[in-house]
Backbone:
């Protein structure tokens, strides 16, 4: 009986996704800290709405609250795809306030930032389980993708049956290695880009329309 | 069931938890068992790992327990789930995901991953 219940639930989930086209899909931008999630969210929002989503920084955990930009309309091949972008805090399993002291921060500010960061990560996980319809997973292509956070998050996304695109960001850096990311997650499509420089954004928008439209 | 007694500061306690023991626990009981051990400074090794949903909750609960100068969070390692690419369409449709993966969890300030790839993990464990 469990088998048929599971099958019925799975079909129900799929059909709900296929036929609930009226509302814009909520696309969560996920990834580890400092992958360039907010830079990407801002690039997409600025290109199609003229506004930014949030401040960018090289200090980890700049984004400590999930931020949603609603009704971003992306035009591709004569069609308009409407999505809500949800920029989420970088996911990690550890936060040490002492890391922030290295960025010329006073202890009180560093402790506050670490507390807000932990709340933000918990919030991001909650969004992933409950409130997003698709995921853009952003990785810094100059870093090793074989980390536990990446492995776990991709596994969690797959277990939710969410459509996912992997964006290999920071291709403007000399150390960038997109192939390493493709090899790490061969079951998903990897799109190279530089959100900072705006490189390869045509393909990025084409894939967003194809996967989430 | 007898519980391991905690060690003194001269060593690192390692708890190996069988899949059978975990099977009898609810998700939050598993997370509590892991975090209680890790917060005591132990290295917890799970024979069969956690489901993706449980991993998600483990991250969330860990975040709520982080406290400056007391607990910085966890280091966790499993092998990448290569079986995902090999799952049948029916398995994916039915939401069947294998969780059978050795998992090592420890306090973030005591365990450091030295190397990790598809089939090999090397970690350095230090005393408190």
Residues:
């Amino acid at each position: 009986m469990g088998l048929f219940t599971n099958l019925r639930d799975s079909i129900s989930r799929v059909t709900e996704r296929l036929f609930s086209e009226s509302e814009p899909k909520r696309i969560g931008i996920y990834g580890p800290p400092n992958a360039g999630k907010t830079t990407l969210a801002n690039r997409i929002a600025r290109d199609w709405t003229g506004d930014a989503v949030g401040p960018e920084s090289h200090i980890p955990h700049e984004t400590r609250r999930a931020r949603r930009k609603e009704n971003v309309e992306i035009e591709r091949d004569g069609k308009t795809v409407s999505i809500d972008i949800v920029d989420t805090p970088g996911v990690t399993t550890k936060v040490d306030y002492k890391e922030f002291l290295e960025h010329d921060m006073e202890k009180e500010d560093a402790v506050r930032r670490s507390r807000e960061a932990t709340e933000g990560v918990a919030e991001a996980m909650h969004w992933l389980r409950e409130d997003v319809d698709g995921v853009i997973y952003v990785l810094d292509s100059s870093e090793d993708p074989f980390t536990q956070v990446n492995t776990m998050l991709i596994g969690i996304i797959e277990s939710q049956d969410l459509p996912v695109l992997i964006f290999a960001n920071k291709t403007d850096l000399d150390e960038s290695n997109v192939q390493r990311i493709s090899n790490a997650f061969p079951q998903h499509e990897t799109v190279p880009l530089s959100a900072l420089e705006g490189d390869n954004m045509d393909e990025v928008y084409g894939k967003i329309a194809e996967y989430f439209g | 069931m007898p519980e391991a007694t905690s060690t003194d500061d001269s060593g690192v306690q390692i708890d190996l938890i069988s899949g059978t023991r975990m099977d009898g626990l609810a998700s939050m009981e598993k997370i509590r068992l892991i975090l209680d051990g890790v917060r005591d400074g132990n290295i917890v090794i799970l024979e069969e790992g956690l489901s993706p949903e449980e991993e998600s909750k483990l991250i969330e609960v860990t975040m709520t327990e982080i406290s400056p100068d007391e607990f910085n969070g966890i280091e966790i390692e499993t092998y990448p789930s290569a079986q995902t690419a090999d799952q049948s369409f029916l398995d994916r449709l039915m939401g069947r995901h294998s969780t059978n993966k050795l998992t090592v969890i420890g306090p973030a300030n005591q365990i450091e991953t030295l190397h990790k790839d598809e089939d090999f993990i090397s970690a350095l464990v230090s005393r408190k």
